[in-house]
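**User:** I keep going back and forth on a fold encoding question. It is easy to fool oneself when nobody else works the same problem. Could you pick a protein and write out its sequence and tokenised fold? Could you put it straight underneath, so I can go through it closely?

**Assistant:**
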Amino acid sequence: MEGKPAPTPAVGGTKLRYPLTRRAVKGAPGPCGISRLRQGNGDGMRGPGDRRRKRGTMRPLRGRFMLVGIAALVAGSLAATVLLLHFGPGVARGGQAAQAACAPTAPDDEGPFYKPNAPERAGIGSGLVLSGVVRAAGDCAPIPKARLEWWQANPQGRYDDAHRAVQTADAEGRYRFETSFPVAYYGRPPHIHVKVHAPGHAPLTTQLYPKAGQTEIAFDFVLRPR
């Protein structure tokens, strides 16, 4: 009868929600030897079953992306560990100790109180330990037998010979120096002067600024080649 919609066909005893298209699917009989028809909406769009199958195929991909992300995090942690073990804490740690890619240490004012020929010694006080490695810029190679000159104000804010020293780094460029916590004077924050010399490298004059309550400073001095 005209005007009456055609009944929705059934496949395998199950009534389909969408009209059948001519796409071949597996299982149901059809004309011309086609064994089964896929559900569709009649205009080439996929039905709900197709969307569910598509979502199912995305789950393994999400799992792979998560594994790739975890592998990247592990690789980054391993790289940081290798840097710490190879170059020591002065390069791997942040703050004053860090020298990104072994860039030369920034110079600072020498000031008017530098005096050469200080006594050779590894300390001028107690309570604050300075340690690290003297390195070459670029490849971070330790510089053996570099010389370090230290001077700072005494507890009264004056410079004297008792608070001056010279020391030599060891064969691997390492140094350790012990002093007392410096005082502030003339509006300047507590600071320690240091001058570093090594053959084949430009001398470095800079200052260290310990924070209140600090008892250790790990710092690598990085020198420019001549």
Q: What stands out?
A: Helices lie at 48-87, 89-92. The longest strand covers residues 159-168. Residues 8-45, 80-99 have pLDDT under 50 and may be disordered. Residues 49-87 form one domain.
